Amino acid sequence: MKTLIQSIRLTLISAIVFVGLYSLIVWGIAQCTSSKGKGEIIAKKHFANIGQKFTKDEYFHGRPSAVDYNAAGAAGSNKGPTNPDYLKEVEARIDTFLVHNPTVKKQDVPADLVTASGSGLDPNISVQAAKVQVARIAKARKLSPKKVIKLIEQQTEKPLWNLVGTEKINVLKLNLALNKL
Questions:
Q1: Together in a domain, 171 and 127
Q2: 23 and 107 share one domain
Q3: End-to-end CA distance of the chain
């Protein structure tokens, strides 16, 4: 009986700490962001602020999606880095990327351009992933590479408080800004 009472107490304490207290901490941190934890809606015809497929050479390409950007089935592939099918998929993505970006060396292809995110809908890429696409974009749009790099710098989102996270670029926002040039 004593063990049962201790187990119930531990369960209640764990529920309070890990459900209640943790949720309040995460909510509090979210309130410190510019969107107050509510995300951001970009109202443009035919666009949504989730990861989506950009395949034309005149647009920046985002992360691949394990669910082909279907928000109803958001998920990763659950294939690990040693899975032969997954490795073939990544190699095929690298080969496709190199065909569209002939000035890039294989070892310079950023991982986030050939591996899907956990949700399969990540709207962001790294700054390196954007910069490695500059030559293709500049050529397709007849722009100077310096102008494209300046746009990347303008669209780079800094980490929260310059401490938490990494620099990132929302591909949709970047492509919309590119259209305005």
A1: yes
A2: no
A3: 73
* Residues 27, 101 within the same domain: no
Q: How far is Cα 117 from Cα 124, in angstroms, rounded to an integer?
A: 10
**SS3 state at 48:** coil
Question: pLDDT tens, 42-95?
Answer: 655 555 556 677 888 899 998 887 777 766 666 666 777 888 988 998 999 999
Angle at CA of residue 151, ends 147 and 153, nearest 5°? 115
The two three-digit tokens of residue 179, written as one number = 């259209």
48, 6: one domain: no
| CA 139/CA 145 separation, integer angstroms | 8
Task: Please state, in angstroms and as integers, the Cα–Cα distance from residue 119 to each residue in 49, 76, 113, following that order.
Answer: 14, 5, 15
The verdict on 7 and 83 lying in the same domain is: no
Q: Examine the domain organization and report whether 33 and 46 are in the same domain.
A: no
Strands in 9-161 per DSSP E: 124-125, 156-157
Range of the domain at 32: 1-39
Flag whether pLDDT at 128 surpasses 90. yes
d(Cα 145, Cα 138) in Å, to the nearest integer? 5
Tokens (6 digits) for 163: 């401490």
58 shares its domain with 72: yes
Biggest distance spanned by C-alpha atoms of the chain: 78
Report the alpha-carbon distance of residue 99 to residue 136 in Å, rounded.
11
